[in-house]
């Protein structure tokens, strides 16, 4: 079995569109609290409606990009006039390595996100836990084995900067923008 990211993206876009639609409908059907004379811009459900609409838009864009990639891939395959057996085996080997790397990255993202939610948040202040999470996540997905020590140190410094800035921006947004007390 080969990895067909265009097909996976199309199915993912359909799932994300359905979730976005559910968020949009759920936000719209929330109680409006007119009895308390709440300003229309602060109605409950406004943020889920906006996020749902944004998710639906992103899902449509993902679907269109996947469709274009699928069409381009089919055109490329149709234009090939019978590649040699060596070229076919090289392509198969490349797809196998890509699938292995993709699966490893998916497992890392899932496991590390669970670790963040279950172990880091709650045992450390939210901003610190989030800074660690962002920095390690960025480092994992941008790490190049062939890089020099200086390049590695630069990448780690950038990851730490992204982690600290991102974490404190997120924490500030929740504390002062949404008035949510964080752990």
Describe, in plain words, how this protein is organized in 3D.
It is a single chain. This protein has 5 helices and no strands. Helix 1 (5-28) runs antiparallel to helix 2 (46-79), helix 3 (85-123) runs antiparallel to helix 4 (126-142) and helix 4 (126-142) runs antiparallel to helix 5. It has 183 residues and is mostly helical. The protein is flat and about 65 Å long. The mean pLDDT is 84.
Supply the key terms.
mainly alpha, 5 helices, 183 residues, 78% helix
Brief write-up:
The chain is an all-alpha fold and 183 residues long.
Fold topology:
Elements: H1 5-28, H2 46-79, H3 85-123, H4 126-142, H5 149-177
Judged by helices, strands and strand pairing, the structural class is mainly alpha
Low-confidence segments, ≥5 residues, pLDDT <50? none
- Mean of residue pLDDT? 84
Shape: flat
Number of helices: 5
SSE ordering: HHHHH
How would a textbook summarize the main sheet?
A: none
């Amino acid at each position: 079995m080969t990895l067909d990211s265009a097909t996976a993206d199309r199915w993912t876009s359909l799932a994300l569109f359905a979730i976005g639609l559910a968020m949009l409908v759920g936000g719209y059907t929330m109680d409006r609290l007119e009895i308390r004379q709440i300003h229309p811009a602060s109605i409950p459900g406004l943020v889920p409606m906006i996020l749902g609409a944004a998710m639906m838009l992103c899902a449509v864009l993902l679907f269109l990009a996947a469709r274009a990639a699928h069409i381009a891939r089919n055109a490329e395959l149709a234009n090939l006039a019978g590649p040699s057996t060596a070229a076919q085996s090289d392509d198969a080997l490349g797809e196998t390595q890509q699938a292995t790397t993709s699966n490893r990255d998916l497992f890392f993202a899932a496991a590390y996100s669970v670790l963040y939610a279950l172990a880091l948040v709650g045992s450390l202040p939210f901003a610190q836990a989030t800074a660690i999470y962002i920095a390690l996540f960025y480092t994992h997905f941008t790490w190049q084995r062939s890089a020099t020590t200086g390049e590695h140190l630069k990448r780690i410094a950038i990851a730490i900067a992204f982690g600290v800035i991102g974490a404190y921006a997120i924490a500030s947004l929740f504390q002062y923008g949404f008035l949510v007390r964080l752990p």
